[in-house]
Design goal:
- With about 260 residues, this protein is of the alpha/beta class.
- It has a single domain, classed as Collagenase (Catalytic Domain) (3-Layer(aba) Sandwich), CATH 3.40.390.10.
- Helices cover about 50% and strands about 15% of the residues.
- The protein has a five-stranded mixed beta sheet with strand order 2-1-4-8-7, with helices on both faces. The protein has a three-stranded mixed beta sheet with strand order 3-5-6.
- The longest helix has about 35 residues.
- It binds zinc ion (ZN) (2 copies).
Length: about 260
Amino acid sequence: MNRYEKYKRKIKRYYHSISRYKLKLKRKVLKLRNIILEIGISKDEFNLMTPSAKAISYPCHLGILFIGDFQDNLFPIIRRHLLGIYGPFFYEIHDLGKKDSLQSFPGDSFKKGIKRELKEEQNAIRSLNLHPTKKFHQLLIEKQKQDNIDVILAITDLPLYSSYDKQIIFLFGEANLKHYCSVVSSFNLKEAFYERRQNPHLFEQRIIKESIHEVGHLLLGREHCQNEFCVMTYSTEIEGIDRKSPHLCKMCFDKLHSRRVKYNL
Ligand SMILES: [Zn+2]
Ligand SMILES: [Zn+2]
């Protein structure tokens, strides 16, 4: 073996040990990052990061909680529509009552969750408080325990922004699959938001579609449907919600059916 070959081998060996150290270091950094993430967050927030302790089997109990000012006849309407599509999955859909939107979240703990980049905007529009979905999910997880309910859908008149995707503000709704809870915001489902005359029927239709959509995520998964008329399509604008139907397309229906088979429903 000539000198050149010898050096080549030596370099190769060094290279291998360096990449081993690199991997080791990477693992350590990851571990450290997780520790840092855990510091300074509340127990509830940490719970949100960990998988749900209980696994749900269907049929189960679904509860609807209203956070804000809603008409009493809304619950039976939503219940009827949800049962029409997801009936076999639920023993019953319960009315968990109404909560005052301002009293639901203690003001100070809330502000901590507001993202920095929204602060400027917030200062400009003092009256407008966007609410991170994570805070809702936190509230719903507590409610699940309190009321012994498996799955919760919250309907609120507060404006939402996504805790999970910084790009999304003025969200129509978001589901937390890990913790079996969803939230729908009626804030921008009202015609008044678009500076148009009130339309109670249209408002009701939109809330129904979004409720079916968010409960649909809990049963079908987080994916959206490409069919723009399917209730499981992703709508970023109100026109999209008005365009879609309150029904599942054939593909989503088949998916739901396979879930039924899985749970023997
Ligand atoms: Zn969705
Ligand atoms: Zn579909």
